Amino acid sequence: MMGPKLVELVASLEVRIVVSFLLLSVTGVVSFVVVPWAVDQTGQFITERVLRSESIPYEPGWVRWFVPTTLARWLFQLAIGIAVGLLLLWVWGFGSVASTIADVLYVATPWVARFLTTVVLLGILLTGTDFIEARVETYAEESDRIGEHEVSVVTRVLQASMIITVGLVTLAVWDFNLRGLLFGAGVLGIIVGMAARQTLSNTFAGFVLMFSRPFEIGDWISIEDVDGTVTDITIVHTRVRTFDGETVVFPNSSVNGSQVKNYSDQNRLRLEFEVTVDYATDLGRAEEIALDALEGLESVRDVPSPEVVAGGFAESGVELEHRFWIENPSARKERRTRSQAIRTVKRAFDENGIEIPYPHRTVTTRDVADGPTDDATTDDATTDDATTDVAGDVEYGVGTEEAESEPPR
Length: 409
Known about the structure:
Layout: H1 4-9, H2 13-51, H3 62-66, H4 69-91, H5 95-142, H6 148-173, H7 178-195, H8 197-212, E1 220-223, E2 226-233, E3 237-242, E4 247-251, H9 252-256, E5 260-262, E6 268-278, H10 283-295, E7 307-313, E8 317-327, H11 331-351, H12 379-382, H13 385-395, H14 400-405
Antiparallel strand pairs: 1-2, 1-5, 2-3, 3-4, 6-8, 7-8
Helix pairs in contact: 2-4, 4-5, 5-6, 10-11
């Protein structure tokens, strides 16, 4: 309560009027002149020095809507008005009423402070989540170390971490028992971890895939003898669309533990096929003809250059290995280019008289009565001796009856 001397000092009506006038005048000047100016200067400082700083990739204009300067002015003016109103009540002899209101405000102040703190935390949360998303996207645009999928995952993880942090702080502001909450969360985490071991394994494997980046969405890959295009990568699984139109879902733990071939990683792919030419063919000329044919294809890269080399001896000729590269590989382009290359080489060989031989087999005949001989025959020919004996006997004039009476051995 006001002291007795102060009450006596403002006991007269004239003094009360003068004091009230002075209080209202000062209140008006402070509320409608000083407070707006201070709030506007503070808002301008925040805008120029903080929101438009180079470290912030964009200006969160919605912050002005969430915490506008007008609302700030109203809060300050309300606080000043309440204080001056209590003083006027004391001046005009309503000290008990003023004391009651002050007691109510004293009790309500912590709750109001908590509410305002919660509102501020909510504003920080909204601003922070937007800031994290914008910052991660900016970093992804400036660096090739993080892809579109990683941007989404990293953003969600950071935002979830911020939400949890702000939630715990808010609970602490409202005097919740965090020890019991954290203990219960720990026990629940153990139970969930034991019940969802496979899911957690896939989740951890998803993070490993995210940071190792063996492939990205749209890449042509091969996993466990399944070829296809990656259509989706999540924390738990990876989706691959095969060239038959089927969608195969691989758990990330399976992907992480398997051999993965990425045909799109280097943006180029080497193709090869073999063609057998006759032993009588000039290999140098054949290689030159095949190389010219490959270099004439539009889809074959000039660097690395195509090459044709002798790969080995076959049953009917010499094998020529054809190797060439294509860019921006895909399954369709690989099949089309390989078919085009084979057709072109075949046409070039036909035009230049290069023979692609049929399989050759040398067959010898012997007389059944002569018994085994030491004639040099191929392994394949020995399996046909029984049949060729009869034919040979007929060819060399042995009678039909003899051929029929003497069964082949």
